[in-house]
Amino acid sequence: MEVLSVVMTVLAVLAVLILPGLPTVLALRLRPLMAAASVAPLSLTLIAASAELGSLMGIPWNVGTPLVLGLLLGAVLWLPGRRLSRRQRTPADEVLADQLPAEEVPADGAPATDVDRDVPSPVQRFFASRRGEATAVVSGLLLGGGLLLVQALRIMGSVDAVNQTYDNVFHLNAVRHILRSGDGSAWVVGGMTQLEGQANYYPALWHQAVSLAVQLSGQDDIVLGSNVMILAVVALVWPLSVVALVRSATGSGPVGWFLAGTLSAVSVAYPLTLIGWGVVLPYLLALSMMPMVVLVVAHIAAIAPAGPQRPGILQLSVLTPACLAAVALAHPQSVFVGIVLCLPILLWATGAHLIDAVRRHPGALARLGTTAALAAVGIAGTAFAWTRFRPVQSSAVWGPNTPRLGAIGQVVSLSPNATLTWEPFGVLMLVAVLGVLLWTRSRWLLASWVAGAALAVITRSEPMGDLRYLLTGNWYSDNNRISAVPILVAVPLLAVGLDAVARRAARSLPALRGGIGITLVAALAATVLVLSVVSPANRASIGYQTGEWQTSELLSPDERELLERLPDVVPEDAVIATNAWNGSSLAYAISDRPVLNTYMGFEAEPEVHLLNARLDEANTAPEVCDAAAELDVEYALDFGPREIHGRSATYTGLNEISEDGAAEVVLQVGDAKLLRMLPCTGVDGQLNDFSD
Question: InterPro entries under this entry (predicted)?
């Protein structure tokens, strides 16, 4: 792997995640952290929109389409954004008030009086400045994102490794399908495994983004492009979303912002589990932006603190649909994740505003009306969608793996699925919960976390049956997908709670407001990161994820080498007979050559099924010979009988085809063989010569 290829791919991935949404971010005059966290959801929404618009208008798929769409949106928003933006220079005393413990900031966001707070120390004044804020935020992001990056690379083994799981065959080939067809529409991706004219919608935002990155990099390496996108989502998009949530929607201070970034790496349950399990890359992408959905819901519900970090009306009116669309278009299951995490927030806010209205707080009735209406819509929408848009019960095949008490311990201690309770994290989580309950006004985070945690406990412990399907069937009752849900709010909850505890300690012990306090916070962050690395639960899960990458169950090194050499032998328009179950169908993604079968599950013409079963009879069965000629099948890949998931020789027509006289070996690496079909006679007696 050449360093230049990696660098070009990294730059291309960053460009795809940033450039389309950048004009809108600039037009909205978002604050730096909010802008950094918002640009990926905005870019991805524009990418999805441009894919469908480009398909309708016959515009070939390329990065210019979302860039132009982004420029147009930015131009439309520029003037109103300039007029209505709330991004103004904030005096230091207002920043300090914004960073006071949440219980010391009145509901209307007005600064606490001097009687309510102590005189800030020089260290506090530094972190109240823009430079101090940036220091807290960036250092947390570097620690948490850096650890996630290192762990993800350790799981992969190398940045160009091929994930050896079932779904990866589809994800890699779908990117190639977009590039070869020149059309990024979700229906084009859905049509890859369907009969012509029967394409279905498939959530293709992941594949659209990766295809643009591959195209822009000039490397035509889909494996590398996909892996770099994984790393960017894990180590950049996710931590930024978490920090933005804590900074904008809670009353946390610099310690909380720092810990939010650092603790983004605290649990393998998310995001690292999802880079190996499945591999469900679209779901990984969707959940990485879910904290932004929580952020906008908290602001709409008017339970986030008022102040300079609150988005303006125009900003919120653009960010809300963009974040919701990006998450939903990345993976539809994220809609149900959003319901689980955000509906409790709306209900909590409705209750809080009702209490304020009874106490006759100014503006409480208006806030109550808004949140009550939203909560009612949320409840009605949930009742309508929950059972109508879930998979059939026969697909909910994952069962429980621990008793209920063990499941509670695992979820509270942030342990990944099918691992042990890690008591130190359990204690840390309980301390944070107490901190949030006793000393902050961000208690709404608890409502969201409890809902996600309850869902995770149910999927780990509830017996198979109708109740389990009712509550978890929207995720196929998949324990790994659901175990990721509470982590999305557990990390912000940890950051806010530990920040509250730290500030309470600093009020009691003034010495902690200086360098000693910074040292202790740094030591706490380092300790937590060490605990996450040595956690038996996290280590067990990482070991499993590593096994999903660093094996040869799907594609061996010899088979990978043959696929990389294949373009030197096979013409661009020649179709190759392949078996997705043994990895040979990755010739589509890796070799850029059309294949007979792009994925394990597909619908195809009878001739395809005939060749899968009897291609080795082409020299003796005229109907097989004609089918091969009709489908332009000139080559075949023989990767042996061993297949993923313990299967063997699914497509009998490809097994030892060279020994039956139907084809000859033209390229071999180890036991992996590329064969060219030999001339054969069709039903009408005509000779089909595949070398023509």
Answer: DUF6541
